[in-house]
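Subject: complex prediction, re-run

Hi both,

The earlier run crashed halfway through, so I resubmitted it with identical inputs.
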Amino acid sequence: MRRDVFQGIADPTRRAIILLIAMQAMTPNAIAEHFKTSRQAVSKHLQILTECKLLKQKPEGREIYYQLNGTKMEEIDKWLEQYKKIWETRFNQLDEVLLTMKKNKK
Amino acid sequence: MKSSLLFDFSVNNENKTIHIKREFNAKLDLVWQAWTTAEVLDQWWAPKPYHIETKSLDLRAGGIWLYAMVSPTNEKMWCKADYKTIETNKLLSWLDAFCDENAIENNIKPRSLWTNSFSESNGVTTINIILKHDKLEDIETMIKMGFKEGLTMALGNLDELLLTKKK
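This time it finished cleanly. Structure:
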């Protein structure tokens, strides 16, 4: 079955998994601890996210860690775009705040 | 009006720096106030749906700005800025870090040195931000961590949009 990124983030649990491992690579067990659903359900989500190429597996000793699939240079641009958006939002908020400050000054 | 204000964003791999430049349609002293006053910073520093809560802000070289980044689910991430140089209405620099609520730093995120320069021309204030890092990988890590906020932000907006459409 064909998977795409949008399918990956369509489910709230999968979005939560992405947010969780955005900070650091984690084992399936460690990830499952954060959710009320069964281990099997979490495994299924991990499988889908991997098929969507949002996550990738990284074996370490006997454990398998999941991490965001974003180490390749060409993908950095995508992260960068997100980072830039944060600044855009931040600055637009500052525009609003400055406008209010100006009004209050008068 | 908004669209005419300059916004530049670039990464310099060689110098391990991120450069951000933005114009604001306000006078210098107002913009400076927005960057250095806790009550005002709390209103804009975090991209929605995140917000920040400042615990303390001591604006002097060697002083600390300690605040919590609060997620929509009320998770708190403590951050701080160790102020290095302060020249009123001109220059503001600090070293950032993740920390606990007592400002004891941890190593979750590589530290960035922020240099923010302010200047005004014809009532428009320009801010030049340079984020300096020790290693190139640090930039990568930071940008990926930003992705977490960015994604939450995007999804938050999406949720809002869907809510409007439902009505």
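The mean pLDDT of chain B is 83.

- K.
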